[in-house]
């Protein structure tokens, strides 16, 4: 071989420069669900901590909700559509796998000819997508990446199944990841538990979500805090330097269990913890950006603070990284 392959000159680091989210208008309370299944508000809140969730309208889609969130992230970043060179969408709930969501979102936002792909790591998808964007920027493949997590889980949920219908909801979150002189996103720690591939699943093209809730609960409360702690170490950030913990919003008891373990290992007692599950429900790959953006809006989190994110879901997959809040 005589040819020499050259590689693109990348950036020293990347950072998140814009954040936005979208929640559908329709609020569904626990009392609403009690009208169609054997459940009640006390039972739901005791088990998963959810008081209400958002359901998308019939004419809303993964792409349309993703574009709403993406437009807000672009506006905050101060970037025009033509400055975005890559779009990555994390989703596991497309109505049809073709065409993929990223190109549809790019079209809705007027982003011309970007690199465009979806990834499916289920509820861990947002952290995987952030890692992909960070790596694309640092290797020189991209300069400004729109990362979207968007889900319409209600399309894949059996409405009267209280094991899943009380949990899953719809919505989207997005960030813009751009080149930076110094790293604003730490290394990803990711992996999967191949012994539990069928714990959360959809069986067949016309199936619905099936979840072995107790198995997922035991796994998440034991396996996920160490992943987050490893991500902080990989970034060279001490746990007491973490300002905010945002986990995938799966279950309030899981969130609180992870937070307690991280605090016990050295994080501050005043660590801010995202608990958006209570009023948004489980939005899978959209849950971390929605939760963080709503924490900012409530004044709980400020620009420049250090965020530890960790997500987990079907597969079973997991991923975690540290980043600076925009």
From TrEMBL:
Signal peptide: none annotated. Pathway: Lipid metabolism. Keywords: Acyltransferase, Cytoplasm, Fatty acid biosynthesis, Fatty acid metabolism, Lipid biosynthesis, Lipid metabolism, Transferase. SUPFAM superfamilies: Thiolase-like. The keyword Lipid metabolism applies. GO terms for molecular function: 3-oxoacyl-[acyl-carrier-protein] synthase activity; beta-ketoacyl-acyl-carrier-protein synthase III activity. Residues 233-323 form the Beta-ketoacyl-[acyl-carrier-protein] synthase III C-terminal domain. InterPro entries: ACP_syn_III_C, ACP_syn_III_N, FabH, Thiolase-like. Residues 117-193 form the Beta-ketoacyl-[acyl-carrier-protein] synthase III N-terminal domain. Its EC number is 2.3.1.180. This is 3-oxoacyl-(Acyl-carrier-protein) synthase III.
């Amino acid at each position: 071989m005589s040819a020499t392959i050259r590689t693109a000159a990348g950036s020293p680091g990347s950072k998140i420069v814009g954040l936005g989210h979208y929640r559908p208008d329709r609020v569904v309370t626990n009392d609403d669900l009690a009208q169609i299944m054997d459940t009640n508000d006390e039972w739901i809140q005791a088990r998963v901590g959810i008081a209400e969730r958002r359901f998308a309208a019939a004419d809303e889609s993964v792409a349309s909700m993703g574009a709403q969130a993406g437009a807000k992230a672009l506006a905050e970043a101060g970037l025009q559509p033509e400055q975005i060179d890559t779009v990555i969408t994390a989703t596991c709930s497309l109505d049809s796998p073709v065409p993929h969501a990223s190109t549809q979102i790019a079209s809705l936002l007027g982003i011309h000819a970007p690199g465009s792909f979806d990834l499916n790591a289920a509820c861990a998808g947002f952290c995987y997508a952030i890692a992909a964007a960070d790596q694309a920027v640092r290797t020189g493949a991209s300069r400004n990446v729109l990362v979207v997590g968007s889900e319409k889980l209600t399309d894949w949920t059996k409405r009267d199944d209280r094991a899943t219908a009380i949990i899953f909801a719809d919505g989207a979150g997005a960030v813009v990841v751009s080149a930076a002189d110094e790293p604003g996103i730490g290394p990803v720690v990711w992996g999967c538990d191949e012994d539990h591939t069928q714990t959360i699943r959809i069986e067949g093209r016309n199936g619905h979500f099936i979840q072995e809730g107790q198995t997922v609960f035991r796994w998440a409360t034991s396996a996920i805090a160490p992943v987050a702690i490893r991500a902080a170490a990989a970034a060279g950030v001490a746990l007491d330097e973490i300002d905010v913990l945002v986990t995938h919003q799966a279950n309030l008891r899981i969130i609180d269990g992870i937070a307690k373990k991280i605090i016990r290992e050295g994080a501050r007692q005043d660590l801010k913890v995202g608990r958006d599950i209570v009023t948004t429900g489980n939005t899978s790959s959209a849950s971390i950006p929605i939760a963080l953006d709503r924490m900012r809006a409530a004044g709980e989190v400020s620009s420049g603070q250090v965020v530890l994110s960790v997500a987990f879901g079907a597969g079973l997959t997991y991923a975690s990284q540290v980043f600076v809040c925009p």
